Amino acid sequence: MSTSSRRTQAVNDHIRRLAAEQDQDANRVRRSLVFQRLIARLAPAGLILKGGFCLEVRLPGTARSTRDVDFVGQLALVADPTELREELDDLLDSADIDDGFTFEVGAATHLRGDDAEANAWRISVAALLDGTRFEQIKLDLVGQVQEVMGATEQLVVPLPVQVDGAGPVTIEAVDVYQHAAEKFHAFARLYAHDRPSSRVKDLVDLVLLIEAGFVDDPRRLRHRLDAVYSQRDSATPATPLPTPPADWQRSYEAFATGLGLSAQTVPAAYALVSDTYVNALTERSPQ
């Protein structure tokens, strides 16, 4: 067996073993490894990590699984999808990392729909390990750099399983208050034809952030709420938070049970989230 084949087999064995030991989905472990190896290549380029994978890193084994990895960066301001693809490809190819992974960048398409941000792209990326197709992921890239200024911190992303030539990675990431403010904005906004949010996951993530004690400073949360609403809507934070639709109950309870949340019902979750939001809005935003 060649050295590359042994490495691929060893990585797959590590993934299966960890998944069995921690009662996790092996596909989730596999994606986490690919995200981490991708981050190792993009962190030096100044991209900022955001979104669900941040929560997975901060709450290992507790946060809900995410299927894509999200970044903020000036790179998203590129107007031409072919140019964006080429620039991202160059970044990934130029990394001096000997871990056996390579990445093939696919088509870049503008994110569209009610919850898409401006200058938002979705890019298909294939991960190969020693030349063999390993995993296909989606990379979302947005250009809201101004919005997150002053709201980032260094985040250490551990290596989920042993890979020769790889180790932990440190990347600049949105902090928990920015993350919460974005979730509150998504939860509160009205979409086309005055439709409320249909994203149960925003309520779930807010409960996770609050129950973990991550957003316990109302003034800091108020500051980030003001920044997000100002940048995205040229407005102040909406009040009150809308009541979740009745049809969220089943989906929310499934998440709450699986994630071990204390707030097991939509009314309990809404009360927790609404109280946190209202408390923040009674504070004066720090300058």
Summarize the structure.
It comes from Flexivirga oryzae. It holds the Pfam family AbiEii. The chain is built from ten helices and seven strands.
Task: Describe this entry's structure for a reader.
The protein has 287 residues and is α+β, with helices and mostly antiparallel strands. It has two domains: 172 residues, no CATH class; 105 residues, no CATH class. The protein is 45% helix and 18% strand. It contains ten helices and seven strands. The strands form two sheets. The chain has a five-stranded mixed beta sheet with strand order 1-2-5-4-3. A hairpin with a 2-residue loop joins strand 4 and strand 5. The chain is globular, with a radius of gyration of 20 Å. The chain starts with a helix and ends in a 6-residue tail after the last helix. This is Nucleotidyl transferase AbiEii/AbiGii toxin family protein. It comes from Flexivirga oryzae. It holds the Pfam family AbiEii.
